[in-house]
Amino acid sequence: MNAMTQIKPGANSELMAAACQDTILAPRFYTTDYAAMDRIDVASVRKDWDALIAEMVGDPNKLHFKRTQPFVGVIESLPDGLRQEFIDFLVSSLTSEFSGCILYAEIAKRVTNPDIKQLFRLLSRDESRHAGFINETLKDAGIGIDLGFLTKAKKYTYFRPKFIFYAVYLSEKIGYARYITIFRHLAKHPELRFHPIFNWFEQWCNDEFRHGEAFAILLRTDPKLLTGLNTLWIRFFLVSVYATMYVRDHNRPAFHKALGMEPTEYDYRVFTICSEITRQVFPLVLDTDAPGFRRAMERMRRIAGRIDAAKEQGGVIGAIKRLGLTAAAGFTFAQLYFTPVKRNVAPATVRLVPAW
What we know:
Elements: H1 3-7, H2 11-20, E1 29-31, H3 34-38, H4 46-58, H5 80-110, H6 114-140, H7 147-153, E2 156-158, H8 161-188, H9 201-220, H10 230-250, H11 253-259, H12 263-278, E3 284-286, H13 291-313, H14 315-337, E4 341-343
Parallel strand pairs: 1-2
Antiparallel strand pairs: 3-4
Helix pairs in contact: 4-9, 5-6, 5-11, 6-9, 8-9, 8-10, 8-12, 10-12, 10-13, 13-14
């Protein structure tokens, strides 16, 4: 019996459908205003910019994503629930990395500004490496994703550059916080490391951190991006990213149980790290310890579960339920959004080191 059959007949087509899916929780592909990107002037942040570019050109992780041996047979040996949730984790991570790769490559291709072109070429290189590494892991189990097809099949969402900056900065920094939290936990409990890919998480998440630094510097090129009405957008993206992570992680109970991590505790640890990091640029952080915030997050999780159940039910009744639940989710999101925040004065020096 081959690896494909051991997992599930038709697994590839199901994974491609999941990777191509466009939902609130699914990683998306983006386009942006390339002419506006071309007009970015990094003169005001030149010292930090040049230091970061030199670090990225040095490519500290060039040799990191080399597997000592194929991961053949590991995924197939996992219990049913864990196997499916781990595959879902890998596919979601791959789609997110590949989404970044495509966006960054397109920006590098379209702009003429040498600073912007060089940065996004380097970012695309790293994200391509990450996506390829995950895909090779899936291929070892006979369920790799056709990335070329994904490029054509996935819908693209237009975002203005500032929205790209907010969203990707948060994505990279919370990605670091997620990976480093798992890595540190498994370093203390190596018996829970159920797949070898976790051994790569430390240097991998340092790439995520470095990419976040790039967008922190980009945000500092224009003070207006961090003041005035834009603070409302920052708040929106913070709530969106945190709520999405909370719902998604609670949909993977077997995955977190195998890691010896409770999803709620893990998520709030990640939120704390991410909030500490984002103080480098953002004028506010969410008060994730506030009882009202936590109650609203839990309500959002329950509503999302009921929306999934209504989708499975289908028909007119399912559609009516989804309509009402979507309204409830919107109201709950507003509660999260209007939970009082903690104000912050960003430091004069933007750069940080991955010390968590």
